[in-house]
């Protein structure tokens, strides 16, 4: 019997609704005539019954009053019942007027029509609510019971509450609707208290809270405050997607996602000089190297918004480039694009690219970026990060490219590893070449320098997330290690802005905000995943990796900055080197590739970059010998 109740079919609901209509019609007659119905009022009773049942069935089918699951009855179900009953009642009234002349009287007394309307609404909605209450109070034996809060407008909160009621896995007890500065504070909506966000701590004194649903998108500071509050009290925080992303206009529990650490590190949207960027890119032939990487692919996506004549996407990584091509094909951008499989280290292949495609703007994002890997492979680092950059820069100048923008890194500042030093050498070459090119009114070269980007391939957050999902210990290199973070879209927007405003020869650094302690980042990610540190998962300190710094820097001690018109972009005043001196040093460095002598290669890098001091590396001995 219980199983049958739980699987109440639509047919049963439909038939039960019609049976209730029949009972309500009979009861309306009894009430109207004080339980003594005159015989003449029953003259057309058979026709009345057929009419009422037929009309009620018709509007029930039209409004799908039987479509909802009884145990999950919601306000939407109540709305359908009221509309179906109301339109049926209006139909009875119209039929009464139409038949009045031919019958000499009304087919159904209007008082009975009104009484029947009220009874049908009351009993059809009532039995659903009674069944729902019985089910959740007595018949629902789900093991997992959760206390929850919903933060956001109460109207959205009601939708979330209905979603909770339909969740097959958990039995939710909605503790309160939480609003900001709510005038409804202290009231109850659908039996649930409405409280102000500032009173949240009072709730914890009387109720255990397991989950907090964020049902709207507050301003950034408020959102962070809500998330931090949840983390502080070990409450799982979940995001409700925007209304326009609900499936068929209905919210599903499967659409709800855990809040991500990126939400805490998010910063206010950047104001870009759209007109300036557009004037630089619109109708131009644009080449992006390293286009299949995290930064290069996002730069490519954003460039497409500015309607270039054609976008060339160059990378040596076959599969990622193939995936990017498929992604863009699905996006169907308005402008043309072409994927190019090529290695920036191969001068002849790159010469062919420049001679055939004739790019006017080049964004150079191709690079090896993983610090420990480059520490173990210095020869590969100089081929890609140094020689590759030199080839792209030389060809840009030779083929009359208007502007080349190189993507660098904060690891180029006071480098402690091969990767950072290789990027600093590339910076030096590009800046020195700009002086030569500018004198001939040729290509202008701009360098952009920024820190870690959230979610880039191999970065700390995806690694931590994977470790959490696998239940493995989270590995942090050092308890005190800190990093600057920026979202990929934010970094790429600033690259485009810097490229547009740069005159040539600048090394532009981005405002990265406050540095973040990595161990704190790991702890927050654990809590956001609904786990408890020390109970469900551990943090293990593995020690600094070769070439790794404790603290990243955006400027050398000898460097200062000058502001630009954009508050988040500054120009670093760096030491400049004569072109001939830099080129000779780089040629000598690249020639050492043939020797495969890592010590000789790194020694030459240190000669080119005097501030390069190895850290936690086998190459520290080279510093000791100086």
Report on the architecture of this protein:
The protein has three domains: 2-137, no CATH class; 142-259, NAD(P)-binding Rossmann-like Domain (Rossmann fold); 274-621, NAD(P)-binding Rossmann-like Domain (Rossmann fold). With 626 residues, the protein is of the alpha/beta class. It has a nine-stranded mixed β-sheet with strand order 10-9-8-11-12-13-18-22-21, with helices on both faces. A seven-stranded mixed β-sheet has the order 3-4-2-1-5-6-7, sandwiched between helices. A two-stranded parallel sheet has the order 14-17. The protein has 22 helices and 22 strands. It is elongated and about 115 Å long.
Please tell me how large the radius of gyration is.
35 Å
Looking at the structure, what is the overall shape? elongated
Give the averaged pLDDT, no decimals.
84
What's the end-to-end separation, in Å? 88 Å
Instruction: Give, in spatial order, the strands making up the sheet with the most strands.
Output: 10-9-8-11-12-13-18-22-21
Biggest sheet details: 9 strands, mixed
User: Superfamily at the CATH H level of the largest domain?
Assistant: NAD(P)-binding Rossmann-like Domain
CATH topology of the largest domain: Rossmann fold
* Overall domain count: 3
**Low-pLDDT sequence parts:** 1-8
């Amino acid at each position: 019997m219980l199983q049958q109740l739980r699987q109440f079919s639509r047919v049963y609901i439909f038939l039960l609704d019609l049976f209730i209509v029949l009972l309500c019609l009979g009861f309306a007659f009894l009430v109207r005539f004080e339980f003594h119905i005159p015989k003449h009022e029953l003259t057309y009773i058979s026709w009345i019954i057929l009419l009422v049942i037929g009309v009620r069935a018709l509007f029930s089918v039209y409004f799908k009053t039987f479509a909802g699951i009884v145990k999950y009855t919601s306000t939407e179900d109540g709305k359908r019942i009221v509309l179906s009953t109301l339109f049926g009642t209006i139909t009875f009234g119209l039929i009464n007027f139409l038949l009045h002349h031919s019958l000499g009287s009304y087919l159904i007394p209007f008082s009975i029509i009104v009484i029947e309307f009220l009874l049908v609404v009351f009993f059809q909605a009532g039995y659903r609510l009674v069944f729902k209450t019985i089910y959740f109070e007595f018949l629902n034996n789900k093991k997992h019971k959760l206390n929850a809060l919903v933060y956001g407008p109460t109207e959205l909160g009601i939708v979330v509450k209905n979603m909770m009621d339909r969740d097959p896995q958990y039995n939710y007890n909605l503790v309160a609707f939480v609003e900001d500065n709510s005038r409804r504070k202290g009231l109850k909506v659908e039996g649930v208290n409405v409280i102000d966000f500032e009173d949240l701590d009072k709730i914890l004194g009387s109720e255990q809270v397991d989950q907090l649903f964020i049902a709207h998108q507050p301003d950034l500071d408020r959102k962070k405050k809500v998330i931090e509050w949840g983390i502080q009290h070990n409450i799982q925080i979940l995001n409700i997607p925007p209304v326009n992303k609900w499936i068929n206009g209905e919210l599903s529990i499967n659409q709800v996602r855990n809040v991500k650490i990126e939400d805490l590190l998010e910063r206010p949207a950047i104001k870009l000089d759209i007109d300036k960027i557009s004037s630089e890119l619109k109708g131009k032939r644009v080449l992006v190297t390293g286009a299949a990487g995290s930064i290069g692919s996002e730069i490519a996506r954003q460039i497409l918004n500015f309607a270039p004549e054609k976008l060339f996407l160059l990378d040596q990584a076959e599969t990622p480039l193939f995936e990017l091509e498929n992604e863009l094909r699905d996006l169907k951008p308005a402008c043309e694009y072409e994927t190019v499989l090529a290695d920036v280290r191969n001068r002849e292949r790159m010469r062919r690219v420049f001679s055939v495609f004739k790019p006017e703007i080049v964004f150079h994002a191709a690079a090896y970026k993983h610090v420990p890997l480059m520490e173990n492979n210095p020869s590969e680092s100089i081929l890609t990060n140094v020689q590759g950059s030199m080839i792209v820069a030389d060809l840009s100048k030779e083929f009359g490219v208007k502007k080349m923008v190189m993507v660098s890194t904060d690891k180029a500042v006071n480098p402690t590893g091969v990767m950072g030093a290789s990027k600093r050498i590339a910076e030096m070459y590009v800046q020195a070449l700009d002086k030569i090119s500018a004198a001939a009114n040729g290509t202008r070269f701009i360098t952009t320098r920024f820190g870690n980007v959230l979610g880039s391939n191999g970065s700390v957050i995806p690694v931590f997330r994977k470790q959490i999902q696998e239940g493995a210990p989270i590995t942090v290199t050092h308890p005190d290690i800190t990093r600057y973070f920026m979202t990929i879209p934010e970094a790429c927007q600033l690259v485009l802005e810097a490229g547009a405003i740069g005159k040539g020869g600048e090394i532009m650094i981005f405002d990265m905000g406050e540095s973040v302690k990595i161990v704190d980042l790991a702890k927050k990610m654990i809590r956001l995943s609904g786990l408890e540190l020390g109970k469900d998962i551990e943090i293990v300190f593995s020690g600094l990796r070769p070439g790794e710094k404790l603290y990243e820097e955006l400027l050398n001690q000898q460097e200062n900055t000058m502001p630009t018109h954009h508050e988040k972009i500054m120009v670093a005043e760096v030491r400049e080197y004569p072109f001939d001196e830099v080129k000779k040093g780089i040629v000598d460095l690249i020639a050492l590739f043939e020797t495969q002598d890592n010590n000789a290669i790194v020694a030459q890098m240190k000669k080119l970059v005097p501030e390069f001091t190895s850290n936690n590396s086998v190459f520290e001995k080279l510093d000791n010998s100086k």
